[in-house]
């Protein structure tokens, strides 16, 4: 299967996010002009996004649980391996 340029770009972004998460450098994904904003909220959004691109579909949260994940009172599970699109 050949990826379109758009699909390849999406895969590269997901892969970059995963690598930064794994290496503990997730803040590298945040645009420097947003550094004054609440970084905890941005990191949580990145974390939630990674949960939705996990390799094992069964590990991905369903849309109903998204409301619970957005609550700061709920601890997020660690994302597992990123899905491979290539």
Automatic annotation (TrEMBL):
The protein's name in its UniProt record: Cysteine-rich receptor-like protein kinase 41
UniProt-recorded Gene Ontology molecular function terms: kinase activity
């Amino acid at each position: 299967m050949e990826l379109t340029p758009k699909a390849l770009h999406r895969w590269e972004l997901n892969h970059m996010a995963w690598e930064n998460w794994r290496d503990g450098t997730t803040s590298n994904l945040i645009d420097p002009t947003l550094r004054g904003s609440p970084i905890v909220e941005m990191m949580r959004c990145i974390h939630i996004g990674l949960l939705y691109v996990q390799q094992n579909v069964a590990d991905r949260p369903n849309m109903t649980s998204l409301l619970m994940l957005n609550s700061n009172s709920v601890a997020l599970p660690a994302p597992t391996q990123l899905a491979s699109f290539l």
